[in-house]
Amino acid sequence: MTGPTGLPMRVPLPGLPAPTTRVTVYEVGARDGLQNESGVVPLAVKAELITRLLDAGLPVVEATSFVHPRWVPQLADAADLMTSLADSLGDRARDLPVLVPNERGLDRALELGQRHVAVFGSATETFARRNLNCGYDEQFAMFAPVVERALAAGVRVRGYLSMCFGDPWEGPVALERVVAAGVRLLEQGAEQLSLGDTIGVGTAGHVEALVAAFDDAGVGVDRLALHFHDTYGQALSNVQAGLRAGVRTFDASAGGLGGCPYARSATGNLATEDLLWFLDGLGVEHGVDLAAVAATSAWLADHLGRPSPSAAARALAPQATTTTIQG
Amino acid sequence: MTGPTGLPMRVPLPGLPAPTTRVTVYEVGARDGLQNESGVVPLAVKAELITRLLDAGLPVVEATSFVHPRWVPQLADAADLMTSLADSLGDRARDLPVLVPNERGLDRALELGQRHVAVFGSATETFARRNLNCGYDEQFAMFAPVVERALAAGVRVRGYLSMCFGDPWEGPVALERVVAAGVRLLEQGAEQLSLGDTIGVGTAGHVEALVAAFDDAGVGVDRLALHFHDTYGQALSNVQAGLRAGVRTFDASAGGLGGCPYARSATGNLATEDLLWFLDGLGVEHGVDLAAVAATSAWLADHLGRPSPSAAARALAPQATTTTIQG
Predict the structure, then answer these.
(1) Residue to test with chain B: of A5, A10, A11, most B Cβ within 10 A
(2) Does the interface ipTM go beyond 0.85?
(3) Which residues pair with A285 in a beta bridge?
């Protein structure tokens, strides 16, 4: 179920800024992962996934997105899912974050009594137009009433920012542009800003430079989260850089869900299992049961009909009884 | 062929020990990768793989292993392969490192005029018995005449050490044991010591601690190489830790060859593509053409009949023309 006995050895990373004793793993598999599935996953499977992830100890499990079903048919059951979770989990379901792209999305979330929402913006003009169907400046005009009304209703707001490390149409994205966009989301009232490397092109020095640029702009690391995709295998290395820079919240997806693992340019999220193994090795607390997450990923892989793209998830799958050795 | 235009952005990692301008990528795919294939790869494919990797600019391409064919039938053609490469590459083929487990292996390598060999030891008793069929102390007795005769013949010797971060039978391996084993190999005459995380369990703090332990024992980072497997997704993060600790030689395998990517407990090597993307992002020179390596991995994947386990290799495959985007 777990790795070889007593492994990984716990060895702290030297030179981490204090306090380094605890990290928050923000689980996005049920939303960012499943929204990229080619097929629609049944509501019962989604509900069980979220429940299992909560039972594994994940402190934050993003549940779904109230986008228009025309854009993301995979999440068209968002309201039904949250109702089902409220039935099974009770009040706890209200605290699961849900994405709301605009006021209509917020209306739906508020009707259901949700207490934690997220808006999602873009650091680039092109992706704002492609993902949100509006311009870079217009997106903030769209978010303003969403955030304002959410805060007035006592609802927590997270801000996502996409394309913080590069954009497939625009190329490299300057640090100042990312900081400018992030500061606008924070000034609108987002309590936390999740900086997304949507196409997975960033590397470790870039991560540290971006965090430092936010610090220079007066945004402390306590308000930042990092959201990495593993397109070029950089996700966990980038977490290490973020951790060294003082960030303490990292987004991850059970089993590395997100994007098809066998398509070219697959853009799966950082696997929660990879992250937990890393934190366990450093002796950084997270409160999550790695074996339970790996078992959940294995169960979901059966439902999706393909193995997890995460090496750690496969190696830790409950059925694994042997370890392959190489010379 | 490559990633989105101008990506990754070049951003140095702050605080790297100087000089950090250049890293040596030691390519092990043709040996460590192919020895773990379930089938035997034809000699012509192996020869083309090695030639393409050299043409891509890789400074060191380990070619094969002179182990007994009974133990590794995948590499039973070692002598024929080196003869074929000498025909096509000329004198250059003599400098490709080959593994020699014992004096018989060395005899075969010397007969062919090879000028760079590697011995492979274990930091643990159990793995020495399983992989070398002798005890921990006996292995050094076996290596002694190999290294002595190689050096006398003007042949360079690399020392590999397995299970430096954990052992599937013995669990965690103490730093002192690894240092003791490594120092013995170096004192026997190995010019470089490659520290292997054979089962991929190590994490970043452990890497830095091990390098520091060698330093405490008087072994400088210039004599160390790091050899990571990606079983738990830690390989590139561990390279980052090693780079920060001053190590400048990293083993990697084109496309992440090594172990079956779809078997549980897959233990593929760090993918050369992941490593090159990382170094490119940091602006660290390596002299290798990433696109040419990715094209080689795609070509080999066709021969092996399955996609590369490396996300970067898949994303960079020459056929890739689109980039998948997620919200």
Answers:
(1) A11
(2) yes
(3) A22
